[in-house]
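hi! just following up on the protien thing from before. the input was this:
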Amino acid sequence: MDFTLSEEQLMIRQAARDFAQNELLPGVIARDEEQKFPTAQIKKMGELGFMGMMVDPQYGGSGLDTLSYAIAMEEFSKVDSSASVVVSVNNSLVCWGLETFGSEAQKEKYLKRLATGEIIGAFCLSEPEAGSDATSQRTTALDKGNHYVLNGTKNWITNGNTAEVYLVIAQTNKEKGHKGINALIVEKGMEGFEIGPKENKLGIRGSDTHSLVFNDVIVPKENRIGEDGFGFKFAMKTLAGGRIGIAAQALGIAAGAYEMALKYSKERKAFGTEISNHQAIAFKLADMHTQIEAARHLVYKAAWDKDQGNNYDLSGAMAKLYASQVAMETTVEAVQIHGGNGFVKDYHVERLMRDAKITQIYEGTSEIQKIVISRDILRD
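and the predicted 3d structure came back as:
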C-alpha cells in the first residue's frame, strides 16, 4: 500500500486550502445568516477548474482523478459547506453523469458549459414520497413520440434556482417499475417549469434548496440520457459516486471543526493553564483526531476504488456512513471544547455542527447506506 499523495494531488490540496481561506472564509458567517448563495465564489471556482474536476479536458474539464476531487472537497468543506455542496453536485452528479452516459450531442451542448462553471447543474431525484425509496417516482414523463410530457414535483433540490440544467428522473412506464424510469435533461425556462420558494434550512444555508414543479413541460427526445428505461440505473450509478463527494464533505466538516477546537484549546486557559493540558480535553482531541483519520482513509479508499475502475458501491457507502457520523460527533465535541463561545456564531463551530447533520441525510441517508452495505456483505 502506498499512502503518499502525488505532487499534483498535493498541489490541488494547497490550491483548495488557499481558496477556502482567502475566498470562502471572508463573509461565510454573513452568507449563512442571510442564506446568501456564494455566487462570486462559485464563479471563481469555475475559473480555477474546480467545477469540472474529473471531466476530460476536451469538454472543458480539468481531467483530474476522483482522489484529487475528494481532497479539494475536504478543504472547501472545512470552511464553507454551502459552497462545497455546489461543487459536489456539479462534479459528482451532473458532470459525471453526463460525461459517462450522455450522448456526444448532450456533452457538446451542456457538459462544456457545466465543466467550466459557466453554468451549474442540479440533480432531481427526491420527491415528497420518493426520497430514500427512489423507485416510487410520482413525476411522470409520458412518451409522445418525438418528445416527453413531464409532470410532477421534485423536493430538496440543491442549486434549485441557480442551476441552468436539471437532470430529472421520471416514470415513463409504471407497469415496468424501476425499468420504466427515464432521466431527462430539462433546461431552466422551459414552459411549464416552475421553481418553488427557497427552503429555510438548519445548515448549508448559503446553498439554494428548492422544490421544482413541472406542468406539461415538453422535453425533446434527444434530451433523454441513455436508452429508454435507463433512468433508475443512471440515478443509482450517479449517486454511488456522489456519495464519495458527500463523504469528503463530511470529512472536511469534521476536520475543520477539529482544527478550530485544537487551536482554541491551546489558547483558552482554565484553572491556571491552557485547557489542552487538561486530560478531559486532551482525550477528546485524541478521539477526534483518530476518528477523522479513519474517516479519511475510508473516503480516500472509495475515491481510489473509483479511479482504479473497481466497484465502489460498498466502499463509497461505508465512507459516507462513517464520515457523516464522525462529522456529527466531532462538531458536537468541538462546540463542547469551545464552551460558551462554541454556542455563538463568531467561532464558526456551531455552524459546522449545523452543516454536519445534512451529510447523514442527503445522497442517501445513513439508514440507506447500511442497507447498501449489508446487502453487499450478505450477498454470498
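Strands lie at 121-124, 140-143, 147-158, 165-171, 181-187, 193-198, 209-220, 269-270, 273-274.
The radius of gyration is 21 Å.
cheers
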